[in-house]
Each structure stands twice: as C-alpha cells, then as structure tokens.
Amino acid sequence: MSVPDYMQCAEDHQTVLVVVQPVGIVPEDQFFKIYKRISSVSQVSIRDSQRLLYIRYRHHYLPENNEWGDFQTHRKVVGLISITTCASAKEWPQTAERFHAQKEVYSSTLYDSRLLVFGLQGDIAEQQRTDVAFYPSFEDCPDVEKRVDDFVESIFIVLESKRLDRATDKSGDKIPLLCVPFEKKDFVGLDTDSRHYKKRCQGRMRKHVGDLCLQAGMLQDALVHYHMAVELLRGVNDFLWLGAALEGLCSASVIFHYPGGTAGKTAGRKPSISQPADAGKRHRPGAQEVLIDPGALTANGISADTSTEIGRAKNCLSPEDIIEKYKEAISYYGKYKNAGVIELEACVKAVRVLAIQKRAREASEFLQNAVYINLGQLSEEEKIQRYSILSELYERIGFHRKSAFFKRVAAMQCVAPTIPEPGWRACYKLLLETLPGYSLSLDPKDFSKGTHRGWAAVQMRLLHELVYASRRMGNPALSVRHLSFLLQTMLDFLSDQEKKEVTQSLENYTSKCPGGMEVITLPDGLKLPPVAFTKLPIVRSVKLLNLPVSLRPHKVKGLLGQNMSTASPFIYSPIIMHNRGEERCKKIDFQWVQGDVCEVQLMVYNPMPYELRVENMGLLTSGVEFESLPAALSLPAESGLYPVTLVGVPRTAGNITVTGYHTSVFGVTSDCLLEGLSSVKTSGSLVEVIPSLPRLQLSTSLPRSAHTSQPTSKEELSSSVSVQLFNGETQQLTLTLENIGSEDIESLELTSKIVSTKEKVFGEFLSWELEDALSRLPLKSGQAVTLTVNIKVKLDFSGQESLLQDLNDDGLSVTGLPISSPLRQLLKPRPENKTFGSESGKAEYSHIKTLEAVLNFKYSGGAGKVEGYHRELSLGVHVDVEPSVFFTRVNTLPATSTRQCHLLLDIFNPTEHELSVSAENNQDLVLHASECQRMAIQVDKFDFESLPQPDQETARFTNPKQLEEERQYAQGSQINSKLGICWSIISFQRVHVWSKASVEGVLNQLVLEHLQLAPLQWDVLVNGKPCDCDVIADCKAGDAVALEVQLTNRSKNSVGPLALTVVPYQDFQNGVQNYDLGDAVTFIGSNTFFIDAVKPKESSVCVGALLFLYPGDFYLNIKFQDDSAGRELPLAWFTLPSVHIRALDAQPLAGA
Description:
Elements: E1 15-23, H1 28-39, E2 43-45, E3 52-58, H2 63-66, E4 77-85, H3 92-105, E5 112-118, H4 123-126, E6 132-135, H5 144-167, H6 195-215, H7 219-235, H8 239-257, H9 276-279, H10 306-313, H11 319-333, H12 340-357, H13 360-371, H14 380-396, H15 400-414, H16 424-434, H17 456-472, H18 476-489, H19 496-512, E7 520-521, E8 527-528, E9 538-544, E10 553-555, H20 563-566, H21 574-579, H22 581-586, E11 587-593, E12 598-605, E13 612-623, E14 626-629, E15 631-635, E16 642-650, E17 654-665, E18 668-673, E19 681-682, E20 686-690, E21 696-700, E22 719-726, E23 730-739, E24 747-755, E25 766-768, H23 771-774, E26 784-792, H24 801-807, E27 813-814, E28 817-818, H25 822-827, H26 839-845, E29 849-860, H27 862-866, E30 869-882, E31 886-894, E32 900-908, E33 915-918, E34 925-927, E35 932-940, H28 952-957, H29 960-979, E36 982-985, E37 995-996, H30 1005-1011, E38 1016-1022, E39 1025-1026, E40 1032-1036, E41 1040-1049, E42 1058-1067, E43 1073-1074, E44 1081-1084, E45 1088-1091, E46 1099-1108, E47 1112-1120, E48 1139-1144
Parallel strand pairs: 1-3, 1-4, 4-5, 5-6, 9-19, 11-20, 22-30, 40-48
Antiparallel strand pairs: 2-3, 7-8, 9-12, 10-30, 12-16, 13-15, 13-17, 14-16, 17-18, 17-20, 21-23, 23-26, 24-29, 25-26, 27-28, 29-30, 31-32, 32-35, 33-34, 33-36, 36-37, 38-39, 38-41, 41-46, 42-43, 42-45, 42-47, 44-46, 47-48
InterPro entries: Ig_TRAPPC9_Trs120_1st, Ig_TRAPPC9_Trs120_3rd, Ig_TRAPPC9_Trs120_4th, TPR_TRAPPC9_Trs120, Trs120_TRAPPC9, Trs120_TRAPPC9_N
Subcellular location: Golgi apparatus
Main location: Golgi
C-alpha cells in the first residue's frame, strides 16, 4: 500500500468501506450529484437492534489498498455501488458485463453490490432485481437513499455473520494466519504446529474479531478483543499486528470518549443514538483496566448481567493512555519499511485526537515524525496532498506558521519542474492560504497599526512568489497589486538594491497594466483591497495655507451675520464648549475664496536611495466642488523633509475638507487618505470657502523695495516700494489700481500708518486725493484707475550733541548761550577736536534715517461683499532719509520793536553737495559741503494764546507730559510756517525745487518764551504816532509833545492797577547816559502815569505831555514803580518800546 488516506481518523475504524464508481460513460456532474446523495447515508440504524452501522464512501480506491483488508477491516471494500447510463435495451448486456467485471476487481472482499442504471426504460427496466435499480433519468430517482439503506442493511447482515463465525469459533480447528501482502513470502516454510505460531494466529484473529465488532457497533466487545490481542501478540513479538491491535484499542477508546468525532468541523459525526449512557461513563485518567473473558460474551453481544457492562466500560483507555498507545503502535509500525502508509495514517489519527485534547506540543511531535516517514516514490499530486494535509493538521493544533510553511511547500510542488503543465492557479491559491500563518494580510491598513508583525524576510519572499505566480497565471493586474503591496508594506526592510529591483519590476508591469485604486475580486470571491503608496513619498505633515496677504478675506466689523441669533447668552457654557470641541480642533480659522487658487503644503520625504518622480500629485477633497490642479515633482534621493505645495480652485462656497492626496508613482495611482495616516501631523483639514471677491493689482511708479519690512502690527505687506530722499524733500508716488478678477470692485478705501520708526515725523508723511478714483467705481474687470500719493519727509533738523561740541568756538555768547563760528573752525581746525573731513566724523553727521509706512487699500464687491467680506491690499513705503541741513544752535536777539525779535540759526550742511538755504524775506545763504553758517531772521513775535486749547475733558485724562509736548509742537508748527525756511541742492537736476526745513525740533523753552508775544501789549504814541522799531519822533523845541501810553490785556486775568514813571535821558553813544535833564526837559503835569485794573481783552490809555526846551536827541525810559501791584507778573510782560524823540530848533536857518 503506497497511497495513504490523509483524511483518515480514529472513528473510521468502525466504518465499512463502500466504493461508488461509474460504469461506462457517465457525465461527471451527474455522477457526483448521485454520489452526494448516496454519501448522505453515512450511518444506518439497524432494525431490531440498538446498533448503528457507519459507512465510509469512496469514489476512487486502489485495489492494492484492498489487500490490507485483513490487517484492518475498515480498509476492506465490502460494498460496491456502480452508476451507469443505458439508453436502450441493446446496450444493457454490455452494461451488465461491465458491472460484473468491476465487481471482479473487489470480489475477494465484497459483501454485496448494487448497480444504478439511469435512462433505460422498457421490459428490462420493469424487472424486479435486488442488485439493480432502474431510473428514467438522473432527475427522476426519488428512492436512491432508500435503496442505499437496504444495501447497507444487507452488508450488515454479512458483517454480523462473519463476526459471529469468528467470535464463537471454539472448535479445535486450526486458526488461519492472517497476513499483510508483504508477509506472505516470509511465512513460507514456517512450522505451523509450534506454540509461537498458534499464538500469533490467535492474536491476529483476536485483533481481526475486534475490528469486526467495532464495525458491527459492539464497542465494548471490540475493546475486550483488542486487549486480548495485545497480550497475545506482545508475547510473540508480532510487532506489526501488535501495533494494529494497539491502534484498534485506541480507536475504540477514542470513539467512546469523543462520540462527536475527531475529523474536525467538516467531517464530524453525530453522536451515536445507542451510546448516550456510555458517553457519560468516560474513563477517568488513571483508571485501572479490567479485562473480561470473551467466554462471557453472548452470541448477540448483549449480556444480561449489568455488572458485566460496568466492567466493559473500564476496558476503555483514558485520554492520556490513548496517546501513549498510539506512540507505541507507531513505534512498532516504524520497524517495517512496507508499513509506512500505516504509520503515517496512525500519526495523522493521533494528531487529530491530540487536537481535540488541545495538546498541541505533543501533536507537533507526531506530525514531525510523519514528515520523515519515507513512502517511496510519490507522484507530484501525492506530494501536494501530503503537504496540504500536514499544513491543515498544523493549523488545527495552532501552529500557524508551521502550517503556512507546509502550505507553501505544497504550493511550490504544484509548479515543480517535473510537472509538464504547472498548476499556477493552484499554486497561487495555496500561497494565499499561507498568508495568515506568516502574519501577513493583503490589506495595507493592517500594517499601519503599531509595530510590524511577523518575519519580514519570509513575508517578502512570499509576496515575491505571489507576484511571480500571478504573472504566470496571465494576470498582470494581480502582479501589480501584490508588488505595490510589497513596496508599500515592506519598504523599511528592503535594501537599497532590492528597492531598485522592485521598482524596476513594478514599472515594467505597469507599462502594460497600470495600477489603480479599484478592488480586485478573485474567482473564489476573495477581494484584494487597493494599495495606496503612502510611503512614496512619505508625508510628515499637511498644512492648509492661508491665501496670500493681498487675497485674504476680512469680515466687515459690525456685521455678525446670522450666527448672532444662535450665540449663548451666558459668558461660559460647558455644554456648548464640549459640543464644539471637535469642530474647533479641525476647522481652521481662516477662509478660502471661491474661484481663487488655494494651497496646501505637504512636508514630504523620499525614502528611496534614488530620485523619486511623482507624475501626478493632487488634492482629495469633500464638500464643495473643487478643481484640483495636479503637480509633477521630482524628489532627490533620501531628500529629508521637502516642502511640496498642492493647489486647487474651489468652484462653490461652503465648507471644504481636505481628505487626502492622490499620486501616481511607478505607474500606480494612489489615493492616500489622511484619516488612515496616523503619523501625519495636521493643524486641521476643514476650511470655509466664502463667495467670490474681486482682485486688485497694484503697480507703482517707484521701484520695489529691496528692504524687508517688519511692521509692528500683525499685518503683512503685499508689496513695497523704496525711495531715498533728503530730509524735507517731497516725492510723488503714482499708483495704478487694476481689477484683475472677475468681480466688479464696488467699494474702495485708503488709509495709511507709519510703522517701526523711532524718529519723530513733522507734518503729514503721506497724503492723497481719493475723490477722483472713487468716482470711477464700480471698476469693471480689466479696468484700472490711477492715484497719486505725496511722500513728504520732514524729520528733526536739530544737530547732534557731539556736533555741537565740535562747533563751539572761543566763547562768544548771545543771550547767555555760546555762539559758534564753524566756518573759521573748518578752515583752521583745532588739533584737540575732530575734523569734519575725517571719515568717522562724516559718518556720524550723515547718518541715514529710515521711515516706513503702510498704505492700506480696502476694497470689495460681488457676492462676497453681500456676505460682509472685503480684501485688503497693503503697500509698504520705505524711505531712506538722508540729512539735508542741521540747525546746530538756535538763539534769539531782541529787535528794536517789542513785537519783534531776531532768530539766530547756526545751519550746518552735512551733505557732500553745495546747499542754498532761504527764509522768508531773507537773502539766500549758500553753504558748501560740511560748512556751518549763521542766519539771522527777523520775525514778529507770536501770539501762542490764540492756538486752540484742549478741552477740559481731554486735559483731565491725558498725561501732562504729553499735553506739554503737543503744546510745544503746535507752537513750533506756527513758528515754522512763518519762517518758511527752504533748502535746495544747487548741483542737482531738480534746480530751484525748494525743499522745506523745519525748526520745530530745535526750539527750546527759552527760545519759545523769547518768541512769544507778551500777554500785555504796550503801545507808546508821541503826538499820536506810534514809537517803535527805531522810529524817531520829530518835534520842535518849545512845543508841547503829547505822550500816550496804551495797555492791551491779552491775558486771562485782570491786570493792575499799575504806576508808570517817565524818565528822559540822553545817550552819548559811548556808554555814558545823562539823566540830569532838569533844565532841558520839563513835564506838563506829572511824569507818573496811573493805570487802573484792566480786564482781559480790554485796553487802558493814560495821557501826558512834556516840553523840550533845547533841540537834541532825547530818549524816554518808562519804568514801573516798585510798589506797583503788578510786580508778581513776569518781567517780560512789562517790556515797553523805547522812545526816541528828536527835538528840532524852532527857528529854521536863514536861506534854508
């Protein structure tokens, strides 16, 4: 016997073997249809008995295996059912002859046979025969099962008779020696009368009777016979049959302990109806075996003594003893080379029992022994079957990886080189079945969870074999899918050379059959999920980018929309916060705009050792309609993190979710979803798309700035311009605003703001007129409008402290402050001081200052304007301010008029050019490079009280220091407007384009006081004419001169009463003044004037007269008396104009 039955199990020992075979030509499908119905009759309850007969059907059985029927009776073919077709009566004789010929094959063992004839009708079909059944067709055969029942009963009758013949034979007849085929030649010439021979014959027969009892449903009798056979055969060292007796004892015990069977779920049997009591009496481990004398058995096997039944139950082996006896039996089988099949089948049966007992470790030992059993030359099909069964058994005991190993060996055997037509489909199917054993799943999602499971090297080998098998099957799509799966899941375990080889193979496959994201369904119904290349390239982070600064939408303040109605009236509500938590963590706080290009930045990494080309990479979205604009990129080898920006255009408004991205790498299209990529960092994927807005493009007449502006606010600049101006210079900036969007611009606003400057700016830095541009609205798509902005820089013109020190001269002073003579200083520099010609000096005095401002355009239109959105376009203005002139010192000198004074300015030219400086009603002053000169300007004093004052509310809540600064700034502006100081660089092309200079930053408090018009204004009139500004009043000696003193109170309080004394004197212009003029000047009346209290904004006049007795130049000094009530007021308030009177001779010269 060379072909083992790997499906054998211990309970098969109690079955009788029936072969079902076709005779002649029978359609295969029809044959198996009838075979299935026949095999459904697997157990038959014998009438007039409590026993069951179990039947095992085979449609193919080798006659040589039948020769082992005496060794184990369940291997003996005892029944034959033939199926044939017969169309006419003429064919019947030939059919009957074939049936008899078929019976001859198994004639030595057959108990009974049947022939089922389909298609024959007529007289022959109407004949009543027990061994032949006629049916009109395969569909019209309702009683097949009934005939099989009758057939099985007839077999039982023969079986029972044989059992009784052997069991009750107590005569002195010689017992025949039962042999296996290979033993017959060994027993030729043996002494048949020896005791050893007789014991061997008795032991073998006992074992044979035990087989018959087991088949006949007499379990306890079988146990007794097996025990006796074991004892007899052990005594004569008949190891082959001793092993068979032990195996029979094990099988009977297994049937007792496990009535459900050991074949597994698919081949399990129903518990015997006659054995429910026995099933409850299973032998406990360690129970003692009690042997019963077979003489106590009755003819029908049923004893009237119940105590004997109890004894029979004790003959059953315990579950542990079953395995030990199996081991012993297999060891005996191993002594015989020709018993390899028996040994192998015994191992398989033991493993099935151990699987039920959940003793996997011991079961693996039996299987390991089965692997090494040599069965001689097996065909390829037999090898495949052997390895498949080994795999199945390893699977049953939980050795999944071992099971997968043998399944893979079976798969490789399907395509062995010795097979003329390799079975690649069978190979592929078996390989698929090995995947779970190697912790390998064809779903990529299983590899994204935690650490890698299984042996990567084995898994890669298996995947390579799947790729090759699918290619040999002629299914390139399957090859692409498996190769893609290999590359995606095993990338970390591939060497650089392997990565290169795999990708080259993949490109070769995809050139014929591109890979996609569709699910591949195999013929057996297995579905292969799509494989997305999430590692080619690897994406580390996904970040939705805000629109460029100039395109970002802004919500109009005050328009809260409909959300206001759903807002909670509570300051804090934990329920609302909880409900909105998920949305907050995903929704992004900026918006995209319908119709505008939106960007998503991916940080990607190329893990391959060579350049990776991604042919088609775009975004996957859900929500609003979105047009993805795919990109192609090439990543260098092992690039590290590399930013990739994917773009698209939302076509409708609403909420859009970026769900992932799609790629095309090596010919495989992948849809990579973010929800399956736990390692990808993202700040959110949901963003709101608002309705469309217009787009404004800005172009300027000035060059773009090379400086990077750093505004203090959070806003960013759309663009910037740069210009270099001298301090005080004005530049025009022409802006062209063009509508490059599809929506009309319906509103436009322009504001400006100075940012990031430490310098104080005087005057208006940026100014414009917007009315003309607004009149052009709405601005259609493609239209443009022009706007002019004036850039006027006016910073502090005051010189630095170090500059003042270098310009000090020998100590000449005016009003207590030193006056410099820089021209002489430059021509003859002092050795202890720095010269202006040195590089350090120039750098210090020609420091370039920077001014930065932002022009902000707000515009809107279209559907976005209806929703309350607008856009802002920011233009940065960067101005480098070079110094033009410095006012290094400022002083005042009194003028001849009390309402005027002289302003002295020391002007320094820090530039390398020749400057011309002019002031109101003054001659131009030319300054050479690094030259300093003084300019004296006569100015009218200023009435600072007329400047607007802050109201009481503002004054109360404002810092006093700030109020003082604002007051000084207002005074300086008024002074600066009157001075009108301008400068011009003579050598420039823009000749006579005067730029203004400002003295606001150099005026100190003392100078301001000198320039301020006193609140008490004094007017002195001589003969009705005012005396001021060196005006000489003429009069005649001897004539009375009218003197009038007028006080105008411009202060906020009343002034007076005051007393004034008029003292005349003469000035000899040599430092000597003569006050002793009693005989030259006389007063008509008193020389003291009294002024009563003068209320604010009122005037008071006092009148007197004096008489000059001699001609000459006289001066009047008007003094306040010491006891005057106005002495607490500032002295500057009581400055009266000097009075110069020239008395002429009354008689003109003769002839004049």
